[in-house]
Structures are given as structure tokens and as C-alpha cells.
Amino acid sequence: MNHLNSMEPGPRPVTPPGPDVSRRSGRAHKAILAATRELVAEVGYQRLTIEGIASAAGVGKQTIYRWWRSKAAILFDAVLDANSQEDGSVELPNTGDVEADLRLVLRESVAAMVDPDNDRLQRAITAEIQTDLAVAGELVRRLLRPQLDATQARIAAGIRDGQVDGSVDPGMVAELLFGPVFHRWLLRTGDLDDAFADGVLDLVLTGIRPR
């Protein structure tokens, strides 16, 4: 008998798992967005470069170009990431009191716009969308429109509850609420605070309460 052939096979060597590419890509993606925000705050958008982002994030330029076509596109995703709206979902509170809910939303919007960490980032993307129509379209679709639609839905619920007059256009009311806030932030025409947000809401409510 051939004893070599009759021997039971030994345990196979365990192959160590390879690197988790998806996890590594996720870390690199987050690092690039974080580096973009930090550099915009430090040097401004005009001096922001792909090379600088790559160096700060610890990745190669080709990694960045694999995901984004321009620094404007990176900036846009950095804004979305900062606002925790990557999936575009927005949900407004519904406590049953439309005035209280809209007041909370407006105040939170004001706080986000004047936050020093966000202000320069938001101004950079606002300037960029004046010439980059592709980024402008994405900004509306993924950031502004979800907020307006959610506000419109809350106002429509207020109509159903008898707290808002049935003749009003919920979409127009949503624009009336956020328009003055954005105008004051963009042009720096005065203080942007809770008092201003409350004043805007009170004026709008005067026009939309049931007659």
C-alpha cells in the first residue's frame, strides 16, 4: 500500500482576507470632502485646487477625478455632506401646529446659514452656480428643491388641518418664507437671526391664515 496516497489531507492554509476596497473608498471619499471644506475656509474657493485637495486628503489626483469632474462638483458634494443631505431627503416636523413647525424650520435654516463653518462654503457654491449651470441644476435638485417640497407639504397639511387658508399656493408660500432669509444672507443687508426669521414668518402667516 502506498502510505502517501492513503494519508488524509491536512488542513488547507487560511488565506488572509484582502483589503476592503469599498471601506477604503468610503474613507477616501469622506477625506476628500472634509479636505475641501477645510481648504475653502482656509484659502477661499478661488485658490482651491485639485492638487491641494488631493494632498490634504492624502489621495492621488486620479482618485478625485474618478468621482468628480471639477472642483465645483467636489464643492457641491462637500456642501451636501455638511448638510447631511446626501440622499436628498428632508422631513419637516409636524406637531400639529403649523406656526410652531415653520418657526423651528426657519430658525434652524438661519442658524445653518450664519454658522462660520458653513458660511464661506455656501458662498463659494452660490458664486459658482452663476456660471456652472450643471452644478446649479444639481444644487436645486438635490438641496434646495427637497427643502422647498418638504415645506410645501407641511403647508398643505396645514390647509387640511384648517390652519392655513385653502386658497393659498403652498409652493409660493414656501418661496416667500425662505426668499427673504436667503436675500439677507446673500447681500448682508442686516442681521440674520431668530428675530428676523420670526418677523418673516409672522408676515407670511398674516397672509395665509384662514379668512
TrEMBL record:
<dbReference type="InterPro" id="IPR050109">
    <property type="entry name" value="HTH-type_TetR-like_transc_reg"/>
</dbReference>
<dbReference type="Pfam" id="PF00440">
    <property type="entry name" value="TetR_N"/>
</dbReference>
<keyword id="KW-0805">Transcription regulation</keyword>
<keyword id="KW-0238">DNA-binding</keyword>
<feature type="DNA-binding region" description="H-T-H motif">
    <location>
        <begin position="49"/>
        <end position="68"/>
    </location>
</feature>
<dbReference type="Pfam" id="PF16859">
    <property type="entry name" value="TetR_C_11"/>
</dbReference>
<feature type="domain" description="HTH tetR-type">
    <location>
        <begin position="26"/>
        <end position="86"/>
    </location>
</feature>
<dbReference type="InterPro" id="IPR009057">
    <property type="entry name" value="Homeodomain-like_sf"/>
</dbReference>
<feature type="compositionally biased region" description="Pro residues">
    <location>
        <begin position="10"/>
        <end position="19"/>
    </location>
</feature>
<keyword id="KW-0804">Transcription</keyword>
<protein>
    <submittedName>
        <fullName>AcrR family transcriptional regulator</fullName>
    </submittedName>
</protein>
<dbReference type="InterPro" id="IPR036271">
    <property type="entry name" value="Tet_transcr_reg_TetR-rel_C_sf"/>
</dbReference>
<dbReference type="InterPro" id="IPR011075">
    <property type="entry name" value="TetR_C"/>
</dbReference>
<dbReference type="InterPro" id="IPR001647">
    <property type="entry name" value="HTH_TetR"/>
</dbReference>
<feature type="region of interest" description="Disordered">
    <location>
        <begin position="1"/>
        <end position="26"/>
    </location>
</feature>
